Batch of 2 targets.
Target 1
Amino acid sequence: MQPTLTVFYIASFFTVLLAFCFAAYLCAWVKSQKASNQKIEKVSALIKTGANTFMRKEYTVLAKFALVAAIIIFLLLPAPVWSGNVIDNIIMVIAYVAGTIFSAIAGKLGIFAATIANRKAAEAAKEGIKPAFLVGFRGGAVMGLAVVGSSLLGVVAVMLFTNDTTALLGFSFGASSLALFAKAGGGIFTKTADVSADLVGKVELGIPEDDPRNPAVIADNVGDNVGDVAGMGADLFDSNVASMTAALVMAVSLDQATDGAINTAMVLCYAALGLLSSVIGIATAKIGKNGNPTRALNSSTYVTTAVFVILTAAATAIFEGFRWEIWGASAVGLVVGVIIGIATDYFTDDTKPIVKNVARASRSGPAFTILSGVSYGFISCLPAMIGIAISALVAYNLCDGLGEGYAMFGISMAAVGMLSIVGMIISNDAYGPIVDNARGLAEMGELGDDVLRITDELDSAGNTVKAVTKGFAIGAAGLTVISMLGAYMSEVNAAAVELGKELLTGFDIMNPTVFFGMLVGAAIPAVFSAMLMLGVDRNAQRMVAEIHRQFKEIKGLKEGKEGVEPEYEKCIDIATKGALKELIPAGLVAIFATLVVGFIGGVSAVGGFLVGNIVSGLLLSLFMSNAGGLWDNSKKYVEAGNEGGKGSEAHKSAVVGDTVGDPFKDTAGPSINTQITVVSLVASLMSTLFLTVSIF
Amino acid sequence: MQPTLTVFYIASFFTVLLAFCFAAYLCAWVKSQKASNQKIEKVSALIKTGANTFMRKEYTVLAKFALVAAIIIFLLLPAPVWSGNVIDNIIMVIAYVAGTIFSAIAGKLGIFAATIANRKAAEAAKEGIKPAFLVGFRGGAVMGLAVVGSSLLGVVAVMLFTNDTTALLGFSFGASSLALFAKAGGGIFTKTADVSADLVGKVELGIPEDDPRNPAVIADNVGDNVGDVAGMGADLFDSNVASMTAALVMAVSLDQATDGAINTAMVLCYAALGLLSSVIGIATAKIGKNGNPTRALNSSTYVTTAVFVILTAAATAIFEGFRWEIWGASAVGLVVGVIIGIATDYFTDDTKPIVKNVARASRSGPAFTILSGVSYGFISCLPAMIGIAISALVAYNLCDGLGEGYAMFGISMAAVGMLSIVGMIISNDAYGPIVDNARGLAEMGELGDDVLRITDELDSAGNTVKAVTKGFAIGAAGLTVISMLGAYMSEVNAAAVELGKELLTGFDIMNPTVFFGMLVGAAIPAVFSAMLMLGVDRNAQRMVAEIHRQFKEIKGLKEGKEGVEPEYEKCIDIATKGALKELIPAGLVAIFATLVVGFIGGVSAVGGFLVGNIVSGLLLSLFMSNAGGLWDNSKKYVEAGNEGGKGSEAHKSAVVGDTVGDPFKDTAGPSINTQITVVSLVASLMSTLFLTVSIF
């Protein structure tokens, strides 16, 4: 069978439609769950308002940023407006803005569902673990489906309207801009609130987590939503768009050479089947009455994986011209993604030896918690790095025989494969903050210890699964950026042809211009993440001062007098303003460094810059995410009564580890992904300029 | 003027002779200083015996390792013994063994002088800061001159006897093998003792540092010598030999093409002038009666730098055929080295803002000490990475016009330039542990508070300068390994010509085999340093148990009863055995990974592996060395009475930072250099095998 490309476009649209309908159904289902507790309603309204406030401010700042970016894009891209076609530049601007808007809408929908699901899940926990799990999971699934549906919709729409992959890069850049704000800004927000709430509440005053007297408690819950739900969603929206973009850039160029459309069709088909697999995986997720939520989450991931592999195999068998080698590449990517997830789990699951080792080391004091965590964090990078390396190598060699350019296309399809189940991944990931919030609401709504036990169990499953999904997300981003390197070279060569310059054949490490770029590029993720962490630190100091002020000035607050309430909004406000203020310099450093390297060393230096950035970025993000997860779970392991339990020396040390790990795993580590994508896209978009203006 | 190559060989020999004579004079001068305090004599004899015990054991294990390596070398290198010339293989073995022996002798001489200088410096401090400084500095200078003299001697001897640069690689590999043991093994030893002594002494029992009741106190002092004096010496011996080797490999191949010897002559000339400059710098080092030791150390470094630049300029003007472009490359290397040192100083000097920021953050608890230290540590990598990148770029572009192959030669000469003042650097560096020991001896010899104040000031200067020299050493190692990459390619192509295989033109990042190697290579320094740190941790636990045992079983020890002494040797024994036991797996992982990558992906994958290793290795070693220095000095800053001073919350947090920083800066960080060199040499030596046997 050999349908035309149009058929695949239409099929993609219908898949997106199906996903949206299903998401709407799930959202309605969650909304229809009963909720009656007044306290919970009140607090959850505060959370919702806080989240909306943050997102409104964030989007306002983003809008200004996007405006500046849009003007620059209009002036310079794809070619300077005074030298090229004005229409092309307008299309670029529209694509860019569409990228930010699509991602923003998906984030909004996700937050909307999540802030409903959290209170419904809290109340459902009164009935048992089964209904509570389903509410949490389905609330998260709305985010998953919204993100993947809208990313596929956006990509397909841009392709259909413009038939121009450079516009697709613009769309992808828009998505990255938003992800930078949502992930890094949200990451700073959530950790500011978390650290400050813990520092004053738990450490200074000794009041429990989620105690409503703590002025930062609502900000903390808001942070879960804006950092983990919206931030992670934007991050994966970005990765997903980037992987499809990179694959389409190469597919279109391969198709142009043969006057066909088969590779483009294949990318669309696989992307749509990935979304379909996620829909099936989500629909079949279930848990027994006393079932294990971790197992339930993992098993639906495996279902999605299997469905994707089978469906794509069927498509490859049915459609004439689809190559088995490319199917193999995507399957390898997916399988390696799962393996990376499992390896991450080994280093961060508290039933495995590593977490226990760190907990044991904590007995000797906080320095040993840190040293052992850093060490295991370093070691934990190895399996993922090898996994990414091998999947790239296998994908390349599988597809190399198909003709020139197919090898890099194979790598991009491995990334598409790895990201195919991203809908499922986001669902699992958004589940975490929903049930975490539910736990907080259950505490504040005084639903009793039985309910807390259930929400604790749901929360713990969220933490475990989070490590796996995070490893997966980093792995997928790694493969994506490798294929973006290919996209960068395609862009450079397209520009070189137009300018009549020499074509690039690659980036030779022995070329010192490349090497120069590489060393600078390698330092950027370190600087970027350091700036974010210092930002959290500064911001937390401001918030701690505010909490102290409230406890001092609001009479009866500390004693928990009836009717006395802290000024929650002030804390939310500090976290919001500070997050955006601290984020922008870090983002600018990364973008600015790309430009400086490009104008000094030209396109080769930028190639090296991207590689250095990818290599050190992958290493640092894996290290920070895994070490953070490890410390978090070590603390939980000690709190569960091991190594002396709560209040012991080991516990104090483990708390230090967790506090260090929080910005590692929730602010800096996962933001590096976005930084890499932003830098890759800036490089691709500026390639014409780097070709024409550079010192060396 | 255009003398023959022989003249340069002879001149090199005479420079070495001059350096050795000067070292002998300094050693005799130090020895002639008076010393009378019985207690100090006794303790310093213990330290000397301990250091000798460790080195004997270390050399025994090393001898076994070297035997295995020698057999493998005999069988396989430069070509399998059954296929090639047996004489060549025997030469390789001899060169390899000579590399280990030359380095070992230099280390022995240094330790010999250092263990005399420490007690003489303690007693000289009674007379004032000026004599004490001179004793400390000149004791360190013996090490500096011995290391640089014997490295130049070894390289010249190998070249003269074999006229074969592959044999030089063998010599360099020997030096690296020893450095791996001395630096990493010594690093584990010193931190095991330091951490254990502090943990039980200062934290548990509240007795002062260097208290003679503490069973680990001698081991701690021994550690300063074997880790910092011998380890750092072996590390820089290794870097120095590697930089000369890389430059000579390329010089000889350039000279062969033109049937000349001018480039080889230039390398020898510059190396000899570097040694001569260090002799002059050391000879002119002085301090006023109430002078500032930090300034004295730094100013002799600047003298050496200026002398080297002037002397090499003169040589370039005098000798026909010496190119100014190459002089420029070496000068750029040296200047950038100094700049890197100054940048490092900014991040680690307690009169600069960064150290103060970390001290202030410590008020909020240890988690903030760690977070801010990690963040600034990350940022501190940027100047050095840019510096290395720019010096490579400038050197390349300066020399690129001279003809094919000159560009990479220019980079190697930048490394030679950067390392030219290594004699001075080692002198400054060995000064640190000598005065640190002197402080301990003054305490144990009860020389009174005035003397302690002087030794404290000397010690503090040592710490400040150490950060600078460490940054310098890492920078130099960075440039060296870049030029070793060039040497690796030369070796591969030499082998390819013999085997009739295709020549390599470079390592293209877009080639997934290269990329595969790069990702794996990037993970290795992380794993290597993690294994060393975990080794320190495990070893410290053993020693803490031993200290506890002694305090429990030896009656009167805790109370400080007259005549009761701890069993110092037991602690030394534990540190020694543990260090060697923990080191070997880490070293093998690095070597084994190189082999696996080579046999999977062949020479291109190994090229990528080396690059990944260099990039992430530089980043991590800069990060760990600088963060460690930063924490150390933050603690000292707090102890000087800031942020609440000793005993405050900030102090407790700063101590945690220092404890984390110790293995960072003294074990893992600087050992990564050696790991990179070892891996580069293994790659060069095995290139023929990788060419013939590989999967992809």
Target 2
Amino acid sequence: MTDISHPSKTKLLEAALQVIRAKGYSATRIEDICAAAGVTKGSFFHHFKSKEDLALGAANYWSAMTSELFAAAPYHDHADPLDRVLAYVDFRKSLLEGEVEEFTCLVGTMVQETFATDPAIRDACEASISGHAATLEDDIAAAMALYGIAADWTAKSLALHTQAVLQGAFILAKAKGGAAVAADSVDHLHRYITLLFARPAASQATH
Amino acid sequence: MTDISHPSKTKLLEAALQVIRAKGYSATRIEDICAAAGVTKGSFFHHFKSKEDLALGAANYWSAMTSELFAAAPYHDHADPLDRVLAYVDFRKSLLEGEVEEFTCLVGTMVQETFATDPAIRDACEASISGHAATLEDDIAAAMALYGIAADWTAKSLALHTQAVLQGAFILAKAKGGAAVAADSVDHLHRYITLLFARPAASQATH
């Protein structure tokens, strides 16, 4: 795991999150990261062997940060597992604020660029996306049991689909320069899950 | 519009589609494009002022090629507009074949990288995605009228959502190195549209 105890290392990882989400991974230079972090190139190479090493550290740092954010989020508090899943979707919608590069995904961006050329970065991005999706599986499976859903889809498949919708919503937000189109897609995802579980429309309207 | 009548220009545009989808836009060098096209750098600069000029040409070429592909596809032949929309989704699933860089999207890849740094490329990608989404709107609106759907969503919003799902499905395919996860998300999209229009489950099972 990445040791993020050193202040300048944390600054470099935070800078990587900012710069790579705004410019993409390939266009990001080590000099850009150092400038954004306010540290020297010597300091960079004290902590990271290369830009790829920084990208791997940034993917792990992103996974750790987002894990903490989602673990502490209030959507877990609902008694009904379907409410927890829908509140997760609503929570994702609430995060669509600020500049596009502030609410979009580091690992979705990096894997888009590196999937065919850098297997180590691709695998770190895959682990981040699939690891986050897996945190939704238990609630989806519990909702399927509670609502008596005999489906031709699995909890795992729906969990991954939520991430596909979010990653695609980010691309549309980038194309259109704002969050509104992404929020519409997250609303479609909310509506899909409500329909899948055949929840009455009145209940859907309260969300 | 791009003049693609010259053979070496077409070769360069075809090469741009291949190389950018595999390596990403920023990592692609003019030399990579020339090598893939089998043309000289002199020929490149005869046709394009710069890598950005090629990217703009490639986005327009992509829009023209995909417009032709989708206009000629058999999903238009169904009498029921909902069948046309669902057959479009099935057609998209049927395209998920071969290598990941062969079935993923040029403009989704380019906008991911350039949205904050190159407004001209971003706008060309936006026009390509939104232009394709718009081709679905009439069928969705006709299906809403035919099935008596009084919705809190619009035909335009659902059309854009189909593109969000596809773009996100491509990212998951890149992360996981194969089409299966993308096909699962397209199945979820098919199921969502079926549920939205309250089509009986038996009809859904025939797809």
